[in-house]
Amino acid sequence: MPERTELRLTPQRGAVLEVLKAADDHPTAAEVYERVRVAAPGIGSATVYRALALLVSTGHALELSLGDGTAARYDANTSRHDHAVCERCGRAVDIDQPVPDGMVAEIARRSGFTITGYDLQFRGLCPECQSGGAGQGPGRRQ
Amino acid sequence: MPERTELRLTPQRGAVLEVLKAADDHPTAAEVYERVRVAAPGIGSATVYRALALLVSTGHALELSLGDGTAARYDANTSRHDHAVCERCGRAVDIDQPVPDGMVAEIARRSGFTITGYDLQFRGLCPECQSGGAGQGPGRRQ
DNA sequence: CGTGATACTGATACTCGTTCTCAACGATTG
DNA sequence: CAATCGTTGAGAACGAGTATCAGTATCACG
Ligand SMILES: [Zn+2]
Ligand SMILES: [Zn+2]
Ligand SMILES: [Zn+2]
Ligand SMILES: [Zn+2]
């Protein structure tokens, strides 16, 4: 007798999760949809959006706003980490260096806020876009 | 012979700028539109969007993505600063404590990125929402 | 002034990412 | 098998932002 239907792993949801786990590039919902259609050809976009929301709400994925005006991206790496986003090709890489606790405490003290978390995105040029004049083409946006 | 028409301060643009300067709550474009209609009743929303984009591109205002999925907000305070956003009422207050240079340098070294800037948003509860159970009502979103 | 060139405006149509609605489907239980 | 209920896919709906376009204001110049 299941008191709570935690997360029924339907084929569609499994496929979405697989795509997320296999991705290392923080795809948008639209990109997840594109990729998941290989494994689940008939899947509808609404189902992908619903699956992503479900995975986020159950802690199996993170939803990222990279602050560059682009759509939200999804990340199967649910440990606390930040990102550096290339302004040219849109690539987002993981940054595993947290803000010092002292700084957070100081900001809480000064602002009166109870700080429950933060989001930090660095902007710049990725190594590829610095060297190769063309890099690998302007990927996303801008 | 004016070689470049820099920025013609039309009544509409002036009104938008006044609204921005008077605001201390980082309004969205829609909110700016609402407010500016008091001073410029016939103004169209497209004009507000155009004025905001112009102000941003000429350095008279900043466009903020607060990472909470809500629309972009605008800020007449163009000096470098970050924000703390209340998860309950949506209020965004200024934070004037930059990330230590050493941390940025370390991240640039590790990631190989050339870091040109960053965006940092703290999440939490504002003083009003901590105490007053009701605060001033759930303002924006969530 | 009048004239044309150019910038700006407001209404509206449009785009596009995301959410909603709903009928059909499928798993589960008894 | 029948009843239940969560899930699905199609498509409609939504909303922020953008593009289009005809009309208007501004300006330089004669
Ligand atoms: Zn790049
Ligand atoms: Zn990541
Ligand atoms: Zn609050
Ligand atoms: Zn600010």
From TrEMBL, chains A, B:
Its cofactor is Zn(2+); Mn(2+); Fe(2+). One of its GO terms (biological process) is negative regulation of DNA-templated transcription. SUPFAM superfamilies: Winged helix' DNA-binding domain. Binds 1 zinc ion per subunit. It comes from the Bacteria. The keyword Iron applies. Zn(2+) binds at residues 86, 89, 126, 129. Signal peptide: none annotated. Pfam families: FUR. The keyword Zinc applies. Fe cation binds at residue 82. One of its GO terms (molecular function) is transcription cis-regulatory region binding. Keywords: DNA-binding, Iron, Metal-binding, Repressor, Transcription, Transcription regulation, Zinc. Belongs to the Fur family. PANTHER family: FERRIC UPTAKE REGULATION PROTEIN, ZINC UPTAKE REGULATION PROTEIN. This is Transcriptional repressor. It comes from Parafrankia colletiae.
